[in-house]
Amino acid sequence: MPTEKKFFPLFEKASSNLLETAVLLTKMVNTADAVTRRELLREIERLEHVGDSVTHEIFTELGTTFITPFDREDIHALTSVLDDVVDFIYGSAKRIELYKIQVPESNICKLAELIEKSGEELHKAVLGLRDLKNVESIREACIRINSIENHADDIFENAVARLFENEKDAIEIIKIKEVLSVLETATDKCEDAANVLETIIVKNV
Amino acid sequence: MPTEKKFFPLFEKASSNLLETAVLLTKMVNTADAVTRRELLREIERLEHVGDSVTHEIFTELGTTFITPFDREDIHALTSVLDDVVDFIYGSAKRIELYKIQVPESNICKLAELIEKSGEELHKAVLGLRDLKNVESIREACIRINSIENHADDIFENAVARLFENEKDAIEIIKIKEVLSVLETATDKCEDAANVLETIIVKNV
Amino acid sequence: MPTEKKFFPLFEKASSNLLETAVLLTKMVNTADAVTRRELLREIERLEHVGDSVTHEIFTELGTTFITPFDREDIHALTSVLDDVVDFIYGSAKRIELYKIQVPESNICKLAELIEKSGEELHKAVLGLRDLKNVESIREACIRINSIENHADDIFENAVARLFENEKDAIEIIKIKEVLSVLETATDKCEDAANVLETIIVKNV
After folding, report:
1. B154 touches chain A (CB under 8 A)
2. C-alpha–C-alpha distance, residues C185 and C189, integer Å
3. Rounded alpha-carbon distances, angstroms, from residue B102 to B44, B105, B110
4. pTM for this one?
5. pLDDT of A56 above 90
6. Domains in chain A, start-ordered, CATH in brackets?
7. ipTM over 0.90
C-alpha cells in the first residue's frame, strides 16, 4: 500500500464514527427512560473520544507523510470539520442531560434524524474519496447535505417560533432553544464538511 | 471572451443580488404595514433562491474551467461568504415575522442600514476585481466594511444593554436580542467577505 | 535582516498583546471596585486598538513583501485569529460592564484564567515560529491549548446548568450566560489559532 493510501481508512474511520454517534443521538432523544438515556450519553462521550484519536492520528500522519492524496490543507480542514460535527452531537446530548430536558420532544427528534441522514450522506461521500472516478455521487451527497441543512434550518426556526407562542416560562424557552440551536449547528457543520469535499473534488478532477 | 473571464459577471451577479436583498431588508424593517412587510419578506426569500442559483453556477463553472482568474479556493470562499450574507439577511427578515417583532424598531433599523452600506461597499469592491489595477479602491472598500462592522458591534451591544434595562419581559428580550444578533452577524459575514477580497488582492498584485 | 524576517517581531507583538489583554481581563473579573474595573476595561480597549494596528501592519507587510516565511494565507489566517481572540476578550469585558454583572463571579473568573493560560501557550508557540527546529514544543503548546479549550467547555456547560438550577430570574440567566459564552468563545478562538499554527508546522517541517 503506497503511504498516501493510508489516509483513506482514517477518513472512513472518522466518518463512520460520526455516523455511529448520530445514530446514538437519535436513539437517545427518543428514549424516555433516564437510565438508558444516560448510558447512551456515556456511549456518545466514548465515541467523541474515539473521534479525537482519529483526528490526532490523521494530523500525525499528515506531519510524517510526504505525498498526500489531496492538498494538506484540505485534509486538515476535512478532518477538523468531521471532528466538529461529533463535538456538536455530543454537545447537544450533554445539554439535554444537564438542562434536564423532557424527551422525547418532537422537534429535537426531527433534528436528530436530520443529523443522522446528513451523517449517512457524509459517510457515503467520504467512501467515494478513495476512487475519484465517481465524483458525481459525491457531489450528489453534498447537494443532499445542503438540502438537509436547509430543512433543519426551517425546523429550527419554526420550533423556536412555536416555543415563543406556547411556552410561557422564559427559562424553559432558553433551555430548549439552546438544545435546538446546537442540533441545528451540527447540520451546519455537516454542510461545512460537504463544502470541503466539494473543494477537494474541484481540485482533483 | 476567454473562459476565465466568465467568473466576473457571476461574482457581480452575486454581489448585486446581495445588495438588492439588503435594500429590501431596510425597506421591510421600516414598514409598519403587515401586508406590505410580508410581501417584502417573500421578495427577500426569492432573492435568497437567486443567490443560491448563482452560487451553484459559480461552483459548476469552477469544476469545468481550467484557468481561473484567482486561486480556486479563494473563488470558492468568496462565493460561499457572499451566499452567507444573503442567508443571514433572509434569516433576520424571517425571524422578524416568525417572532412577531414590532417594527419599526430603531436599533433593528440602524443595523439594517449598516448591512445595506456594507452591501454597497462589497458590490463596489467586487466590481473592482475585473481590473486589478485599481487595488487601492478595493482595499478602501474593505477598510470601510471593517469599520461598519465595528459600528454594528457597538450598536448591537448597546441595544442589548438598553433592552436589559428597559424591557422587563424576558421572552421579549430573547426575541429582539436574537434578531439583533442575526443582523449583527450579517455585518460580520460582510467583513469575512472583505477579508477574502483582501486575500485575493494580496495574492494577485 | 532579510525582509521575510520582519514578520516574526510582528507576530510576537500580536501574541504578547493578546497575553497582556488576557492578564488584564483576569484582573478585571477579580476586581470588586467599580472604578478600578472601569479603568481596566479602558486599558483592555486600548490594547484592542493596539492589536488592530499590528493586524493592519502585518497585512500591509504581506502586500509589499515578496518572500514570506510561511504561506501568505497562513500568515493571514494566524493574524486574523489572534485578532479574534483579543476581540472576544474585549467583548466579554465590555459586556460585564454593560450588563452590570456582579463580579467576582466564580465561573467567570475560572474562564478568564483559562484564557490567560491559553494566551501564555499561544505566545510561547508564536515565539517558537522564528526557529522551526523546536517544532515539538510548538506542537505541545497546541495540545495544551486544545485541552484548555475542553476544560473551558466543561466549565461553561456546568456553569449554565447550575445557573438554570439556582437562578430564578430569567433576565439574569440571559446576561450571565452570554458573558460565559463570549469567554468560552475566546478559548475556542485560541484553539483556532493553535490549529493554524499546526497547519504552518505541517507545511514547513
Report:
1. no
2. 6
3. 19, 7, 15
4. 0.86
5. no
6. 3-204 (1.20.58.220)
7. no
